[in-house]
Amino acid sequence: MLSLLLADVAIAKLGAALGAGLAVIGAGIGLGKIGGSAMEAMSRQPEKLNDLRMSMIIAAALVEGVALFAVIIALLAIVM
Question: What region holds the V-ATPase proteolipid subunit C-like domain (predicted)?
């Protein structure tokens, strides 16, 4: 009975670790797309540089915030 309980805990920790990894990978892809699109837009319309930069920073902060939230939830699942 104890071995089944330990196996369930191990599977839960594995799932939490995979979830944290996927969150970080997704955030990296999202940040790359944001940066690439912003650079392309800046090269097409250099006069909009400041507006695009501000929008890019806000979007990147939101993506990182969601990724950090997901990683913290996964770490809490590992610890508890």
Answer: 14-76
Beta strands in the chain (DSSP E): none
Number of Cβ atoms within 10 Å of the Cβ of 27: 19
Secondary structure (3-state) at 61: helix
Q: Quote the number of domains for the chain.
A: 1
- Cα–Cα dist 71/78, whole Å: 11
CATH number at residue 41: 1.20.20.10
> pTM of the entire structure?
0.77
Q: What domain range includes position 6? A: 1-79
- What pLDDT score was predicted for residue 54? 92
